[in-house]
Specification:
Elements lengths: L9 H8 L5 H8 L2 H18 L7 H18 L13 H26 L1
Helix pairs in contact: 1-3, 4-5
Length: 115
């Protein structure tokens, strides 16, 4: 009796792409038209994600960070916060900068995927 052929899923194709597949798994993926097609799709995606993203101008970054700070300050009514508990822009700046960077990274990936 022969062993059943495992399905060619993204995990298996990814293992081939990363060089972590066994020779039999590699042969299975490379021997299938659908497997080869998916392998090329994942290679192209990995190449696109690895491309550098053009940085935003300082003016755009400042505008985005300012908008995020303003939105954060609007989310908590000032009347519910004591003067000591009100967030200052300086205290929130690192968190907002990190959020803005994440948003920009996702935007860059989306832009690359569309091209």
């Amino acid at each position: 009796m022969t062993e059943p052929v495992p399905p060619i899923d993204d995990e298996l194709v990814s293992a081939v792409l990363d060089g972590e597949a066994t020779p039999a798994e590699r042969a299975l993926v490379e021997g299938s038209p659908a497997g080869r097609r998916r392998l090329e799709q994942l290679r192209a995606t990995a190449a696109a994600v690895g491309e550098p993203v053009e940085p935003l101008s300082p003016a755009v970054v400042d505008r985005l960070v300012g908008r995020a700070l303003d939105e954060n300050l609007r989310s908590e009514p000032a009347s519910t916060l004591s003067p000591m508990a009100r967030p200052s822009r300086r205290r929130w700046a690192p968190a907002v900068a990190a959020a803005a960077a994440a948003i920009l990274a996702v935007g860059g990936i989306v832009a690359l995927a569309r091209s």
